[in-house]
Amino acid sequence: MSGIPALHSHFLERIRDAVAADVRFSALLAGGSYVHGGFDAYSDLDVVIVVDDAHYDEAMASRMAFARSLGDLLGAFTGEHVGEPRLLICLYGPPLLHVDLKFVTATDLDRRVERPAILYARDRAAVEARLDAAHIHWPERSSQWFEDRAWIWLHYAAAKWGRGELFDALGMLAFFRDQVLGPMLHRRASRPQRGVRRAEALGMDDDGRLSATVASHDTASVRGAILAAAALYLDLRADAVPERITPRMPQVLIDYIDGSGRR
């Protein structure tokens, strides 16, 4: 498989051979950076294994054994934490390689967040037709979704800062960048809302306003980062103003941080 690092290419070939040799499986698809671009030596492998309906329960029960058969499996766990129990998240090596194995049925292909590449299929024409007819939609968040959450999350960060729980405040700021600021910056550039993925390579922080929300473990630094996050959010919100604006923000947040709103 050309165009990707040898380590990844060889492992994909190994998965393809294993899928082709297993009568339970009908196709192997690849997503993520493989289809979005930017694939490099640090990329994960995101693959989807299509399982025949009659064998699905068995395949799910034995998927850890299948993962072990692919190579030197160091560890693996299922993806309930991201709402995806069909996913098996694996680490192989050395050399270290992160591989996501998702086991689905053919009907699961009818709704996708991306158009995957077909690496193998027993009936390629049937899989192509199914993907051609699929509803493919990236889960974009609305302006109102951001507005309903932004000020509550920023207040949480401010409350932890006020109490001196700086690690907790730093964690919330990182969460806020990933859930709010990053997606809104991607929206501004008319790209799919993908958190802060490839922020540097895509020039999402050319003006330094996103990096201003990254604080050190210092009271003054965290305070400044919270205010910077609020200011950047307001700027990005202007791109698509939500129908319901949270009243008295950001002033009441600023008052809270300055002490007039804190108990």
Describe the fold and architecture.
It comes from Lysobacter stagni. This is Nucleotidyltransferase domain-containing protein. Pfam families: NTP_transf_2. With 263 residues, this protein is an alpha/beta fold. It has two domains: 131 residues, Beta Polymerase, domain 2, CATH 3.30.460.10; 116 residues, Nucleotidyltransferases  domain 2 (Four Helix Bundle (Hemerythrin (Met), subunit A), Up-down Bundle). Helix content is 43%, strand content 17%. The strands form two sheets. A six-stranded mixed beta sheet has the order 3-4-5-2-1-7, sandwiched between helices. Strands 6-8 form a two-stranded parallel ribbon. β3 and β4 form a beta hairpin. α6 runs antiparallel to α8 and α7 runs parallel beside α8. The longest helix is centred in the last third of the chain and has 23 residues. The termini are far apart. The mean pLDDT is 93.
Briefly, what is this?
With 263 residues, this protein is of the alpha/beta class.
Features:
263 residues, alpha/beta, Beta Polymerase, domain 2, 6-stranded mixed β-sheet, two-stranded parallel ribbon, 8 strands, 43% helix
